[in-house]
Structures are given as C-alpha cells and as structure tokens.
Amino acid sequence: MNWGHKIIVVYVLFVAGMGFLAYKASTQNKDLVTEDYYAKELVYQQKIDQSKRASALSAPVQIKMINNELAISFPKDFAAKQVKGDVVLYCPSDERKDMQKIFTVTDSAVEINVPPNYHGLHYVKINWEVEGVSYYYEEKIFI
Q1: Are residues 10 and 79 part of one domain?
Q2: Is residue 91 a contact partner of residue 122, using CB atoms and an 8 Å limit?
Q3: Tell me, what CATH number does 113's domain have?
C-alpha cells in the first residue's frame, strides 16, 4: 500500500467518524427545563418575593422521604389555617420523572407517593397560599 492509498484510508475514516458523531449528537435527548421558559422568566420577581416571605417564617418547610413517600410539613405559622398550593417534584435528568400534585390541607402534612424507580437528584418546588398571601420554597433531595 503506497502513501496515496493511506491518505485516502485516513480521509475515509475521518469522514466516517464525523458522520458517526453527527448521528449520535442528533439522537441525544434535548429536554428543556420547561417549554414556556420565557413567560416564566418574566414573572421571576414574584417568585423571589414569595421565597423571601417563606424564609421569614418561624421555621422552614420540612421535607422528609419515608418509605417511598415524600412528606411535606408546614411551619406552625399556619396552624388551623387552610393551606392551598401545588408541589412539583422536578428531575433535571429525565422529564418523564417529573411529578406535580395540587393540595389543600389544614394542620396536616402533604404526602406524595414516589415510585421506587425515581432514584437520583430531584428538586421539590412548593407554591402555596394562605389567606391570600403566596409563598414559595425549593429544596434539592436525593431519592
């Protein structure tokens, strides 16, 4: 094999390698954090205000994982008051593992059943409202 054939073989291998990389790149999962990210970014100041109100409470929201069940307890500031809101269990690595639950509780914890195959990093995002005042709390958990 002379040097001309070797150059052709190297060139063909290079083109085949680039084609393979282009194919693999096109088959990767491209989940966005959210589909309507621009609209949510416009109201982000409200989320900051809600977070400040939540951090000013007497105690933080308690999040515990007990036997494939996520238990969320609110501070004593909301004793005997109706708490309405929603909880989002967000998995940054897989959109299919995201969960959302709307709740209304009085003096009890919010409980969410988590399937056993939902292992890994998740964000618990809680929006709630009590007597017309809205709050927001977010925490990372490993399931």
Answers
A1: no
A2: yes
A3: 2.60.40.10
User: Length of the chain, please?
Assistant: 143
CA 68, 107, 137, 85 dihedral sign is positive
Q: How many domains does the chain have?
A: 2
Do residue 44 and residue 11 come from a single domain? no
pLDDT at residue 31 greater than cutoff 70: no
How many helices and strands (H and E) does the chain possess? 3, 7
**Closest-CA residue to 50 (of 128, 131, 112):** 128
Residue 136: predicted pLDDT: 95
Determine contact, residues 125/110, Cβ cutoff 8 Å.
no
pLDDT the model gives residue 26:
87
- pLDDT value for 28: 81
Q: Are residues 19 and 41 in the same domain?
A: no
The domain in which residue 18 lies consists of: 1-30
In a 3-state reduction of DSSP, which class is residue 124? strand
